[in-house]
Amino acid sequence: MIAAPAVPPCDTCGGWCTNQAECSINQITRTPHDWRAAPLAGTVYHGIPNTSGTGACTVLVERDGVVTGTVAHIVKHSPTGMAWGYAGSGAADCAQSVLAAALGPLAACPECDGTQLTVFDPEIPRPDGMGDFRAYQPGTDPPADVLDPELTGKCWCEGGFRKLPYQRFKFAFIAGFPADGEWTMRREDIVRWFLDQPDTEEN
Q: ω into residue 32 within 30 of 0, thus cis?
């Protein structure tokens, strides 16, 4: 069972953001929703079905009743968009997208911290004294396009995310929503569900 980060909540967003100076709640009108610093309390995900017969369904992000953005579609199974009310590809993408949006920093790949890039750091102690690779840090390291390609590597994760149990989340919630109806889920309930899982990676 994964534990929540041992850091105090951000004073700005109320979530697990550790960089308060750049907390995305200060840019709350950003769309799509910044999954790395979503506020915990008061955030609701609101599914809006496509009733026109064209386009994909939308999941709004609402903060205290005000729409602040939309959940970005993480494309893996359904290039045509997200859906719900069944156990297919659109529902799988919806589950992964909502789960990643709700988890914020917990959804980031532990190897690259969501950057999809690792860099060699000679200062990391190892028994052989050779250093090791760590996550690329955009605010500290040089721009990615000028890094030595022999000292950098593309992470093997999927889009900067850890292996989330989104199929389990799909069957637990997304597949059961009415296909042509609206639904809402509180972020705090999604995070609690995730933390309660005995295995937080997809089987």
A: yes
Of the candidates 48, 50, 22, the residue with the CA atom closest to the CA atom of residue 37: 22
When computed from its CA atoms, the radius of gyration of the chain, rounded to whole angstroms, is: 18
Does 79 reside within a domain? Answer: yes
pLDDT digits (tens, 9 = 90+) for 13-53: 444 444 444 444 333 323 334 444 455 668 899 999 987 65
Pair 24, 92 in one domain = yes
- What percentage of the chain reaches a pLDDT higher than 90? 27
Name the residue range of residue 133's domain: 117-154
In this structure, are residues 100 and 202 in contact, taking their beta carbons and an 8 Å threshold?
no
Q: Residue 30's closest CA among 71, 69, 58, 74?
A: 69
7 class by beta-carbon count within 10 Å (0-12 exposed, 13-18 middle, 19+ buried) = exposed
Please provide the average confidence, as pLDDT, over all residues in the chain: 78
User: Where are the alpha helices (H) located in the chain, listed in sequence order?
Assistant: 89-103, 166-172, 187-195
Q: Please, what's the b/e burial string for 129-140 (b: 16 or more CB within 10 A of its CB; e: otherwise)?
A: eeeebbbbeeee
Better pLDDT: 124 or 76:
76
Q: Is 74 within the bounds of a domain?
A: yes
Q: Check whether residue 26 and residue 92 sit in a common domain.
A: yes
Alpha helices in 67-135, H assignment, sequence order: 89-103
Exposed/middle/buried for residue 114 (C-beta within 10 Å: 0-12, 13-18, 19+): buried
Count up the domains in the chain and report the number: 2
